[in-house]
Amino acid sequence: MTEQGVIIKGLGGLYTVAFQNKIYACPARGIFRKEGFKPMIGDMVELSEINEAEGTAVIENILPRKNQLIRPAVANVDQIVIVMAARSPAPDLLLIDKLLISARNKNVPVIMVINKTDQSPELAEEWHAQYANAVPEILMCCAKDGVGGKALKDFLKGKISVMAGQSGAGKSTLLNLLLGDTVMETGGLSKKTDRGRHTTRHNEMFMLDDSFIIDSPGFSLFEMEELEPLALQTLYSEIYNNSGSCFFPDCSHTGEPKCFVKELIETGVFHRERYERYKLLYKELKEREKNKYK
């Protein structure tokens, strides 16, 4: 007889599985290695040989995934929580735009958290203005002072969520606030570089009542997946939520005449700075496409 659990951690071929509010250490059947199929955090799995006294079991089967991310390697994600600091470290807005593109491409909803609002309320409002028409839910938080924790917890309820963003933006401090304990090391900033130190060294999922939260290293190394340049516009809500007519049917919205996106920029629907980054990303995709055939 098998029972279903969820993988919350994987390290060295041994997996930590949550099952009926208990934690089990589980190896996976050798057939997974033979078939080149590796279990991932977030996988729903069937367990056998359950030993409650010793807290062990065996992963017998992996249930079909509704989605999976490559970096971090996690499955069955309900939403991505993008965390940025108001001022320090300086937000990498191009990275955030790429995260939004990837999430939209995979149909994964996004929540944005502007953390450390005490650093600069004015800058926090500026970032909010840039993304107000790009992200349905934007929360203002100051994790170290406990501000915004309850609102974020409500958005996480009953879901598997992945925290994404730069090192030093306060993801670990937010996790500690949500979980009510110091479960994550917090690293602060390097005075020399004003960049965050990595405090998360491997993917791990944390349980919060009926919710699961994944904190992962490596998001700052994120790159866009292979996209056709003209597909980029379909991944910007400012454009697809305000569809209009352009003079050219294959308009890229990067400067062509009689482009309806110009009006979106002039009226503030598409923030001008975010539009400039859109053009940079389009150019990057065009260069990648051109070099593909060299």
Give me a quick take on this structure.
The chain is α/β, with parallel strands linked by helices. The protein has 8 helices and 13 strands.
The gross shape turns out to be globular
User: What count of helical segments does DSSP give?
Assistant: 8
State the major sheet: 6 strands, mixed
| Secondary structure: helix percent | 25-40%
Query: Beta-sheet strand percentage?
Result: 15-25%
Overall residue-averaged pLDDT value: 86
Distance N terminus to C terminus? 56 Å
Number of strands: 13
SSE ordering: EEEHEEEEEHEHEHEHEEHHH
Describe what this molecule looks like in 3D.
With 294 residues, this protein is α/β, with parallel strands linked by helices. The chain has helices spanning 30-34, 93-105, 121-131, 149-156, 171-179, 237-240, 261-266, 272-292; strands spanning 3-11, 14-19, 22-27, 44-51, 56-62, 68-69, 74-75, 79-85, 110-115, 137-140, 160-165, 204-208, 211-215. β1 (3-11) and β2 form a beta hairpin. Residues 184-201 have low confidence and may be disordered.
